[in-house]
Amino acid sequence: MKKTILLLTVGILFSCPVKASYEFVVDSMEYSLTHPTAEGVYAMQYLGEYGDVIIPDSVTCDLNGRKYAVIWIYDMCFEDKEHITSIIIPNTVRKIGTVCFANCKSLTHIDLPNSITNLTTQEIGEPSTAAGAFEGCSNLVSVNLPNSIDGLPEKFFKNCISLTSIVIPNSCRKLGCGCFSGCTSLRNITLPQGIILDPACFYNCSSLVSIENVGRITEYYTSSEFYNQGCFQNCTSLVSASIFCDYEGPWPSGLSFGGCINLRKLDLGYMSSIAAAVLYVGYQQLANLDTLIVKRENPAEWPLFLWDGDESVYQSLVIVVPCGRKSIYEKTQPWWWFQNIVEDCSGSSEGIENDITSNTINVYSTEGRILLDGADGMEASVYSIDGRQILTIRDGQPSQTLPSGIYMVKVGCLPARKVVVIQ
Predict the structure, then answer these.
(1) Do 91 and 57 meet the contact criterion of CB atoms below 8 Å apart?
(2) pLDDT tens-digit profile of 46-84?
(3) Is the pTM of this model over 0.85?
(4) Which of 44, 60, 192, 245 has the smallest number of Cβ neighbours within 10 A?
(5) d(CA 226, CA 413)
(6) Is 268 exposed, middle or buried (0-12, 13-18, 19+ CB in 10 A)?
(7) Structural domains of the chain, with CATH
(8) How far apart are CA 275 and CA 306, in angstroms?
(9) Cis peptide before 299 (omega within 30 of 0)
(10) For residues 154 and 176, is the Cβ–Cβ distance under 8 A?
(11) Which pLDDT belongs to residue 42?
């Protein structure tokens, strides 16, 4: 057991980084105490190999006899412990580190406590993000995620080939690169409305049947490992998908629906440019696509080369457009090539008059001002109740003081929602 002397000077305790901390072992777990006045200890490395593991909520340090809460499970703590069958995490734990449970091949279920609120941000002097936390847990069937997390980092569940379904909590706003890549048994996933997906998020999820509530897909690759891997590429069981908003980032290089040979219905919502990342594939890769839904009143840009010269798509694909806009689409290139443009006049189109709340964006009023929170720097348009645009606000910046009344706030291409301003 390694011990490091903690230096004291008159009236001052010097904080030590993790590598210079005091380390001690309790019940096969090595813990690290970074400072005698620290709030808690890190669980650094599990020294056992088999069975069920219960991480205590606190341990007694033999340096000073004090009891400390277990507040972090550090990087690689359980990595490659192939014979551990279960791990119970106490609700004192605030963070888990990079690949901390990776390749725990006998682990079948785990509950992450609600005390864990941040999985994606690395702070100076603290353990890194939880990237790849469960990568390669090949027998992991089910996971309960905390209701308080703001996102899942890259490769979080990569190659968890036994994971069949999962519910992403409403607090979650983003899924990182390759988050579920290679989860070949994942069939059902519940996403909060307006969630943002990074590239390769569901790459090679060959059992995934449908995907809904996607706000937008980014094209920011955090690792060359995922370069040119589309968000839903090779999801060969995917039947329907909906994306509510636009792509974000440079001209896409991935093939978001490449190889989705059973995709039948694709809803592109309010997308303003049907970029290469969506449909830049030969039509043979989307041989069963029969319905394309668009909600924009003004036709989106759409390069003609997307179908690699297979003109049969122009006769077979049904294009569903907003009510009253068929004639506009029929006059706009390249939409005029399609022979089956129909209007959706069912009344389900989402417009400014609808009161729809996004689970990931908060719009509220205080002291006569309207505030927007959680919109990742996006702008929002504020309308009077009669549909007249009166101002624009940005995420985190309150509007000017407004008269009491009902206003509509529309964030990007997300549905509008009502806000009542009371002074």
Answers:
(1) yes
(2) 999 999 999 999 999 999 999 999 999 999 999 999 999
(3) no
(4) 60
(5) 27
(6) buried
(7) 1-141 (3.80.10.10), 150-349 (3.80.10), 362-421 (2.60.40.10)
(8) 9
(9) no
(10) yes
(11) 96
